[in-house]
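Shipment paperwork, digital attachment
Item: protein structure file
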Amino acid sequence: MDDDKYRVGGLYAKYVLVVLIFVYVLNLLDRQILSILAEELKADLGVTDAQLGFLYGTSFAAFYAVFGLPLGRLADLWIRKSLIALGLVFWSAMTMLSGTANGIVTLALYRFGVGAGEASATPATYSLLSDWFPPERRATALSIYSTGAYIGMGVSLGIGGLIVDFWKNRYPVSAEAPLGLEAWQVTFMMVGFPGILLALLVYGMREPERGISEGIKSDTHPHPFRETWYELMSIIPPFSIYNLYANSNGRSRAIGLNLGVAVILMLVSTMLARATDDVAQWTVLGVASYCLFSWAQSLSLRDPPTFALIFRSKALRYVNLSYPFCTTIVYSYSFWVTPYFLRSFEVGIAEAGVVLGTTLALCGGFGVAAGGIMADFLRSRRPDLHVYMAVICAIMTTIAAHVLLNAKDLQTAYVANAFVQFMAVLWSGAGSSLVTELVLPRMRATSSAFYVGFSSVTGLALGPYLVGRLSDAYTDQGVVPGEALGDGLKAVLFIYLVVVFFAVLARRHYLEDYNTRVSRAEAYGEPVARS
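Attachment content:
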């Protein structure tokens, strides 16, 4: 790493950033493609809005959250570029296989696979970029990386709409198409393939020395895969109970707490399933929530310093109770805005895909980059001001969303949507920076994995489903489909009250927790080597 080419923040660091942006583009393209295909899936498979929310959100998010934790741990212990490359191959294959689905069950199974594969990317990338870029430029670098998400979302709408439109015009009768494939099936197969090729480029990247950007070095773990296996077993029931028993030396209190939480989650899931008649939604979400709790409980026994810095830091605890709920709005609007336009205005799928896709890519990309630059600027003025990025985002997005959902003509709606997509992502760079800067270098991927996992449960698993559920309910009451979906999108904005409340609390404790992170880790037994 002495060569100037490979220095922290140097030319090669920028090359790595560009490659990882393309990874994130495919990450979100494969995830988001369901949005432009929603109306096709409703017509061909007969799914409801709530089921679409489940397919897009919960079925993906549960496995994304659960597998993100052990894979985040592996990213802290193993070669991060290799982990990203392998995950990219797996989720791309699962996306292609989604084109063979013959019903909601098989499509959900493939979405499980996409979620598990994509979970490998972001924690490892956060850790990798945190070593390639110094702290004072980290939020900007992570924000630029995050532009890939919105480019991917936008490309998915544009490319998806064009593929569907081309295929349906070329083969009006699906029985005459090659292999009898529907347009949505071809779309899944085509968008999944590029990831196989990109994985080769990722595998060829150089791995930086862990902790080099801050002079806090971490020792190499002798058994990364064994540790990751233990991590996985600490999550999945019933192995989680045995793992807890072994790590707690058979203490009944820890096991009792775990079983108590399991019973509570089971009762809550059962009540919600009966109330909504959505057994799959609440069962999967309940199991995912239990897995997150079991992982945190196991982490407290196996790695007290990491647990302490993630869960006993007031600042980071409040960050994790604030910023993840921003994703509720992002995922709800990024998924449902296309069906909203198709139902509310006289617009074709190709036009909607291109216009909304371009808007999402440009405005979302610029928004997240601008948010990162703004966060770094605020941090330069006062070290804790960047915590308020979530508050700025909440206020501006709420205003723009109400203009969008009350627009009477297509052009006004297009313009308002551009502001929504820009404002809704201003928090992204600050959030990903906060969860890495409040812990030590060896803990960054683990902290990021929990942040991403919890964001998946609160945002991806709940947001799109709740909007779809409300849309179904309003439609059943006689509200026209476009207006019903708009009312659901308005209702979800109330989640910003949670965002603002906890962001204010996080800022109060940020400076103290940031300045004491090394000493607090040492107090829990962490050996810290300073250079």
